[in-house]
Amino acid sequence: MKNFFDSRIVSIGHAFRGWHYVIRTQKNAWIHSAIATAVFILGLWLRLPARDWAVIILTTAVVFAAEFMNTAIETVVDLASPDHHPLAKVGKDVGAAAVLVAALAAILIGLLILGPPLWNKLLLLFTFYS
Question: Minimal CB count within 10 Å: which of 52, 91, 122, 130?
């Protein structure tokens, strides 16, 4: 049983090294991080209900998972095909498309969840100061 837990701890360490690699090397991961931070701060300010938080957390996780998988695909393709190859390009392009789909879906979900309460709060602020 001890070996089972020890190997889980080692696996978690590998996962955190992978996370660190993506954050350290991928500019888009920084963009995702900045936007996710802004969304979380905005969600706190708007006092979103738990169900909205669940959707935002899941959406954020999907975007990061897509970015991590894309980085893994790009790295493995570069290892397997250091020379330019049309299929290597397809693999990289499809991985990037997965991130794009996740990011566009996140934008729409963010607008649906954050838009109405943000609009109401801004209306209250502007009518208060008018």
Answer: 130
Q: How many domains does the chain contain in total? A: 1
Owning domain of residue 69: 27-128
Task: Record the tokens describing residue 51, joined without a space.
Answer: 């169900």
Q: Which amino acid is at 66?
A: A
74 is catalytic: no
Model confidence, pTM:
0.89
Encoded tokens for 112: 């649906």
Which residue intervals of 47-85 are DSSP H helices?
Answer: 50-80
Average pLDDT value for the chain: 95
pLDDT tens digits, one per residue of 110-125 = 999 999 999 999 998 8
Contact by Cβ (8 Å): 8, 18: no
